[in-house]
Design brief:
245 residues; alpha/beta; Rossmann fold; 6-stranded mixed β-sheet; 4-stranded antiparallel β-sheet; 32% helix
Length: 245
């Protein structure tokens, strides 16, 4: 299995290069969806096909070597920043690692460290902020250059400014590859080609943001309004904080 030209799930075909977003409340089945795709377990009914191959008929190595996964809780190993980027492709040169870091907006903050790319990050990257760890994980994924990319809540733990930088990096990371993005922050998936809304293990709504956001009674519209509807202005009388007299 050499490339991800198409993915068939539940009698639907996802074309190469499409961005698929999975949304829904906690426990809806989003991570289960990803676990099936990564073949941590097999479906009890139906099949998942990549390039026409049933995932159960290929080796785990050939499947997972085509995938890059970026999780909410990014794991960095003891070693240098350069080492952690190079885990994406162990044979990569320093120049290739640096180029990957530049593309995902990690280069500038790395250079601000006293030892630059040779800075030791310690276990789990304790010397770095959440946003910095996430950008290094993006550089690692970009260096691996997988045809299929899976992002599991990759921006949920960062502040709004870091999210803006990460969003720019995501655009470069997702370019020309098939991607699946789990996100509670809907701002990160508005530009997806297809949004799958999940509830109790089922896909209950599907479509682009522009359609789902205006569909009356849809769960996606409810989720979108919860995040983006501006709260009504509070009057002085309504405030629970009282001015000291």
């Amino acid at each position: 299995m050499r490339s991800a030209l198409g993915l068939t799930i539940q009698f639907r075909t996802i074309q190469h290069g499409q961005r698929i977003a999975l949304v829904g409340f906690t426990g809806a089945g989003k991570t289960t969806f990803i676990n099936l795709l990564s073949r941590f377990y097999d479906p009890k009914q139906g099949a998942i096909l990549i390039d026409g191959y049933d995932l159960r008929d290929v080796t785990l190595y050939s499947l997972r070597s085509q995938m890059g996964i970026v999780l909410q809780d990014t794991f960095l190993f003891s070693g240098s920043v350069m080492d952690n980027i190079r885990y994406g492709r162990l044979g990569a040169t320093d120049e290739e690692c640096i180029e990957a870091a530049k593309k995902v907006n990690a280069h500038e903050f790395i250079l601000r460290f006293d030892e630059g790319y040779n800075t030791q990050v310690e276990e789990r990257g304790s010397l770095l902020s959440v946003g910095q760890r996430q950008l290094i994980s993006f550089a690692r994924a970009l260096l691996a250059n997988p045809p299929i990319l899976i992002l599991d809540e990759a921006t949920s733990s960062v502040d709004p400014y870091s999210e803006m930088i990460i969003q720019e990096a995501l655009e470069k990371l997702l370019q020309d590859r098939t991607s699946f993005v789990i996100a509670h922050r809907l701002s990160t998936i508005i530009n997806s080609d297809l949004i799958l809304v999940m509830d109790q293990g089922r896909i209950i709504e599907r479509g682009p943001h522009d359609e789902l956001a205006v569909a009356e009674g849809s769960l996606y519209k409810h989720l979108y309004e919860m995040q983006f509807k501006e709260p009504e202005a509070e009057t002085v009388e309504d405030s629970k904080f009282k001015r000291v007299s």
